[in-house]
Design brief:
The protein is of the alpha/beta class. The chain has six helices and twelve strands.
């Protein structure tokens, strides 16, 4: 039984070592477009890291704004949302109107923007855009957008760049910045021209909160809320337990019949066997 347990523990150690090696040696880019968790070319994990290196506090929100509003003084960032429920859009508008600051970007005209603005801007196609700031933006002289979209009819917004890839407006007591193209903030586009400085300027020197519910992330509870490493460790322990039970089961053998007389203690058995051998030993004197 001890040997089986040792074998199981050895298998567990080898299993965990293999997982760590795979994770360290061959990490694969993954995640939905424009998510601050995503390390894929279209993700914005690098943008979130850039803000942190610039001394800006970064949070990821996995609870709907309708259930929990961002903190006071934060800049809420919503990029290429996969879905935006009317109730959630209304909660975002109320938060901005109450003094919040919102950066919303989409490489295609979002249908829900009319829930934020009475006169929302319109999108138009462009063959890639190189824009220059029309207002002071620290460290920004040129922004390169690759998705080929810019704002056409600005409505009540004022341009930040020319051509107008970005524009801003007041919404109640708050501020709203609209991006017609999110590629300057993506992992693959952040290093072009002054895109990184532009991303930092969008934060406005405030803490930043990325809304991740729009990319399918929510609050995980129970087993789903555990870190991936812990899940793999628990799975390894389960496999080890199964191996130990299997090894012990083979050693134990089938169950004994309760009506069968148990074997005598080993000492008594050895003494009885020795006595039998002594009685059957030939008598040399008689022979």
């Amino acid at each position: 039984m001890r040997r089986g347990v040792l074998i199981g523990l050895g298998l567990l150690a080898a299993f965990i070592a293999l997982l760590i090696a795979i994770d360290r040696l061959s990490p694969a880019p993954e995640g939905p477009p424009s998510s601050s968790y995503a390390t894929s070319p279209r993700g914005t994990a690098a943008y979130a890291s850039l803000l942190e290196r610039a001394g800006i506090t970064v949070r990821r929100l996995r609870t709907p704004i309708a259930d929990r509003a961002p903190r006071d003084g934060e800049t809420l960032v919503i990029l290429d949302p996969q879905v935006m429920e009317p109730k959630e859009a209304e909660a975002v508008r109320d938060w901005v109107a109450g003094g919040g600051r919102l950066v919303v970007g989409s490489s295609g005209e979002p249908a829900w923007l009319d829930q934020l603005l009475d006169e929302p801007p319109t999108w138009t196609e462009a063959d890639g855009t190189t824009s220059n700031p029309v207002v002071p933006l620290a460290g920004v002289e040129e922004v390169v957008a690759r998705d080929g979209a810019e704002l056409d009819d600005l409505g009540g917004l004022l341009p930040l760049l020319d051509p107008p890839v970005a524009a801003r407006t007041r919404l109640g007591d708050g501020e709203l910045i609209v991006l017609a193209d999110t590629s300057p903030l993506s992992n693959e586009g952040l290093g072009a021209a002054d895109n990184a400085a532009f991303g930092v300027a969008l934060a406005g020197g405030t803490p930043v909160a990325f809304l991740e519910t729009v990319h399918g992330y929510g609050v995980s509870r129970g087993f789903g809320g555990l870190p991936t490493e812990v899940k793999w460790t628990l799975l390894g322990l389960l496999l080890t337990s199964l191996v130990a039970v299997w090894a012990a089961g083979r050693r134990f053998g089938p169950p004994e019949d309760p009506d069968t007389d148990p074997p005598p203690p080993r000492v008594e058995y050895v003494e009885a066997l020795a006595g039998s051998l002594a009685r059957t030993k030939p008598d040399k004197e008689k022979s």
